[in-house]
Design goal:
- This is ATP synthase epsilon chain.
- It comes from Methylobacterium indicum.
- Belongs to the ATPase epsilon chain family.
- The protein contains two helices and ten strands, in the order E-E-E-E-E-E-E-E-E-E-H-H.
- The strands form two sheets. Strands 2-1-9-8-5 form a five-stranded mixed β-sheet, with no helix packed on it. Strands 4-3-6-7-10 form a five-stranded antiparallel β-sheet.
- The longest helix has 20 residues.
- Helices cover 28% and strands 44% of the residues.
- The protein is α+β, with helices and mostly antiparallel strands.
- A hairpin with a 4-residue loop joins strand 1 and strand 2.
């Protein structure tokens, strides 16, 4: 199967760099799967699980919280606002993120910002369930 270059950059470190078969992204307009030969796209990311398929039956999952993805036919670069590999997550970490988002929600009177934060809270709760904590 054809591969393409994938780079995942978080604020503290490079979390992944290498050839992959596919990457599933939590795009702000919906989930999307990037494969070799993908049309050029620049998109924002929402909170969710990024799934990296290195080869059949081998991959990694990373919880991302916002960011951008630049896609072209031969590469994908994700710049994440926050990113944590699944193996480094605990229920306490996700619960703390949910609590922090709830505080932000309570602190704003901006309707659009409240809607955005509600989405983040829901996505974090879904990620917690999906990760089988």
């Amino acid at each position: 199967m054809a591969t393409f270059q994938f780079d995942l950059v978080g604020p503290e470190r490079i979390l992944y760099s290498g050839a992959v078969d596919a990457v599933q992204l939590p795009g702000s307009e919906g989930e999307m799967t990037v494969l070799p030969g993908h049309a050029p796209v620049l998109t924002t990311l929402k909170t969710g699980v990024l799934v990296i398929t290195e080869s059949p039956q081998k991959g990694k999952r990373v919880l991302v919280r916002g960011g951008f993805a630049e896609i072209n036919a031969t590469s994908l670069t994700v710049i994440a606002e926050r990113a944590t590999p699944i193996e480094e997550l605990t229920p306490a970490i996700i619960d703390a993120d949910i609590a922090a988002a709830e505080l932000l929600y309570d602190a704003t009177s901006d309707y659009d910002r409240k809607i955005e934060i509600e989405g983040q809270i829901a996505q974090l709760r879904e990620a917690k369930v999906a990760l089988s904590f």
